[in-house]
């Protein structure tokens, strides 16, 4: 629990630090390049855009801070990504909880010891490790062993054209015939066992790379949009 809370705290510090730095720069540029209500409106719009991008990144599975801390936001029921509207509600509840101070520390009050805050419980969310994979139960596919196949072939060869007993009809197996059949067929090669665990790990790695590229693309798009807004303000001066 404490390890996950520490990773969540690291993610929050990184994300809030980025938002604060970018918002301060945008606000300072807008305030220095324009006067009056237009500048205030542009500054508020830019900050709102950053918060919107933050919610989008959370709904996509991770923000820059979450990528560094190697955690992701998921649905408690399914383990899949959280819907956008649930992310928005979660952040509103988190902000309201921080306004009364105690809400920001609600992750320490989880009776189940899972480190879920009020904002997580309000929308059925959970913060998990990015390496966690939700899928079918793990297990291995048991291969067909060589001695079994060899013994089966040897029995078939030994039982061919052999005299039968009067009682049970079981063929009289000659030891020499068994030895020759075993040497002829030889032991079969044991197939390589492919476990569901290894397949799940590869799928998780590919999904993590895709999410990282999506996060970088959305974040880069947000920076471009903010730059365009500032450029339009400068042109209109």
TrEMBL record:
<feature type="transmembrane region" description="Helical">
    <location>
        <begin position="37"/>
        <end position="57"/>
    </location>
</feature>
<feature type="transmembrane region" description="Helical">
    <location>
        <begin position="12"/>
        <end position="31"/>
    </location>
</feature>
<dbReference type="InterPro" id="IPR051791">
    <property type="entry name" value="Pra-immunoreactive"/>
</dbReference>
<protein>
    <submittedName>
        <fullName>RDD family protein</fullName>
    </submittedName>
</protein>
<keyword id="KW-1133">Transmembrane helix</keyword>
<keyword id="KW-1003">Cell membrane</keyword>
<keyword id="KW-0472">Membrane</keyword>
<keyword id="KW-0812">Transmembrane</keyword>
<feature type="domain" description="RDD">
    <location>
        <begin position="5"/>
        <end position="121"/>
    </location>
</feature>
<dbReference type="Pfam" id="PF06271">
    <property type="entry name" value="RDD"/>
</dbReference>
<dbReference type="GO" id="GO:0005886">
    <property type="term" value="C:plasma membrane"/>
</dbReference>
<feature type="transmembrane region" description="Helical">
    <location>
        <begin position="215"/>
        <end position="235"/>
    </location>
</feature>
<dbReference type="InterPro" id="IPR010432">
    <property type="entry name" value="RDD"/>
</dbReference>
């Amino acid at each position: 629990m404490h390890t996950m809370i520490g990773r969540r705290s690291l993610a929050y510090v990184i994300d809030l630090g980025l938002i604060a730095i970018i918002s301060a720069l945008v606000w300072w540029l807008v305030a220095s390049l324009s006067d009056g209500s237009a500048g205030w409106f542009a500054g508020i719009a830019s900050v709102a855009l950053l918060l919107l991008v933050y919610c989008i990144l959370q709904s996509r599975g991770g923000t820059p801070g979450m990528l560094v801390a190697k955690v992701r936001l998921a649905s408690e029921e399914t383990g899949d990504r959280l819907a956008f509207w649930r992310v928005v509600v979660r952040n509103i509840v988190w902000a309201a909880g921080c306004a009364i101070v105690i809400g920001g520390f609600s992750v320490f009050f989880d009776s189940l010891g899972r480190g879920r805050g009020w904002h997580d419980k309000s929308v059925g969310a959970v913060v998990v490790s990015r390496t966690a994979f939700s899928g079918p139960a793990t297990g291995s596919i048991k291969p067909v062993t060589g001695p079994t196949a060899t013994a089966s072939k040897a029995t078939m060869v030994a039982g061919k054209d052999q005299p039968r007993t009067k009682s049970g009809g079981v063929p009289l197996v000659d030891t020499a015939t068994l030895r020759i059949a075993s040497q002829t067929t030889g032991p079969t090669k044991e197939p390589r066992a492919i476990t569901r665990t290894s397949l799940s790990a590869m799928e998780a790695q590919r999904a993590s790379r895709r999410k990282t590229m999506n996060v970088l693309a959305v974040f880069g798009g947000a920076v471009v949009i903010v730059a365009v807004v500032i450029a339009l303000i400068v042109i209109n001066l």
